[in-house]
Amino acid sequence: MAAQTLGMDRDCFEDEHEWFRETVAGFVARELMPRREEIREQRAIPRELWLQAGRQGLLGIGVPAELGGAGVRDARFNAVMQEELARAGMAYASCFGIHTDVVAPYLLDLTTDAQQQRWLPRFASGEMTTAIGMTEAGAGSDLAAIATTATPDGDDWIVNGSKTFITNGYSADLIVVAARTPTEGERRSITLLAIEAGMAGFSRGRKLDKIGQHESDTAELFFEEVRVPGENVIGEVGQGFRHMTHALATERLSAAIANLAHAVANLEITLTYAAERKAFGRPIGSFQHNRFKLAEAVTEAQVAQTYLDRCLTAQVADKLSVEDAAKAKWWSAEVQDRVIDTCVQIHGGYGYMEEYDVARAWADARVTRIWAGSNEIMKEIIGRSLGFGDPR
Ligand SMILES: Cc1cc2nc3c(=O)[nH]c(=O)nc-3n(C[C@H](O)[C@H](O)[C@H](O)COP(=O)(O)OP(=O)(O)OC[C@H]3O[C@@H](n4cnc5c(N)ncnc54)[C@H](O)[C@@H]3O)c2cc1C
Fold this sequence. Notes:
Strand order of the largest sheet: 3-6-7-10
Oligomer: single chain
Largest sheet: 4 strands, mixed
Helix content: 40-55%
Radius of gyration: 21 Å
Structural class: alpha+beta
Bound molecules: flavin-adenine dinucleotide
Shape: globular
Number of strands: 12
């Protein structure tokens, strides 16, 4: 079965990706969906589901086979996983995507053999879940303003500070934390450290109350004189900024793929609703205004899909630029917002009721213009690539 978006064939996938899609879709249908209300109440993915995902080979796509993974570095598998999870809910794509698409490149590309032996088997099995801690109360878009510090003490580092809005933050066993390691005169000296559950001085706040994505845990993290051994430094000391940009294109394309899949799933639901729901004796989709809104939504989604598939093909060939990934992330978030807003409007009052998927989706989607680099920051990146730097 070839991948399609609203009836449009997509030729960027091979058979093996579609088989993997069936595995992910099966996991969603059998494991996630029956527990979706419980997950929303708990505001977190239960550990058994992480373990189940690990057993089904969803978590260790790029992890070497001898360390328990599939040993495949092919972004199309990650894309398939993001699509199928996002169709079920943005928070699923976010929680698992932070692990498989955001943290994975750090643990696969920047770690020593000893670190890989220590972390990757449990990363692939789901026994160790992960998060990434960059954002702070005073440093979101402006990561250079990070105030958390890591001070050398013999072979160890002493970490002080806090992080906020961290996805999986409440439950993660290992968090890749960006901390300032001042070297004289260098404002941007940042180092990445793996902070692990149970380290003395590391604590977490409550699960933050979000307006949507109630399936994910998002938390504040606090570090008070946390002693982190030198063997937990990820990559090179002082090179955190360079390391954080290394996988940005991958992360942003992953976010974009989830955005669009989420919009498309809700549009499919809405097309069915518009055919079944009647007003004035006619299906509501047959009113010209609604028909035009649906035509616009389908067109926008398919045009966006074509661009994302092109970006995915470029990524597989290791040719995706940071600017093109920024365009994909920005545009997909805008399309997602517009499409899902249309879905809510076409559902009428039911579109505002929590029990309807489109209502949840509307609240879930709002953050995608803000996180993973806001849309304004994406436009900055694109604008700069056109030769227009900041005049200051
Ligand atoms: C649900 C959720 C999950 C998240 N998960 C994580 C996570 O796992 N790990 C993590 O580290 N972070 C995470 N974040 C944080 C997220 O990445 C930040 O919220 C985001 O980068 C924006 O930072 P900020 O909130 O500090 O906003 P600010 O940086 O204060 O920005 C406020 C507004 O100003 C705009 N702005 C800022 N600078 C400029 C500029 N130069 N030009 C034009 N406009 C500008 C922004 O676009 C935004 O609209 C998460 C956030 C949320 C809400």
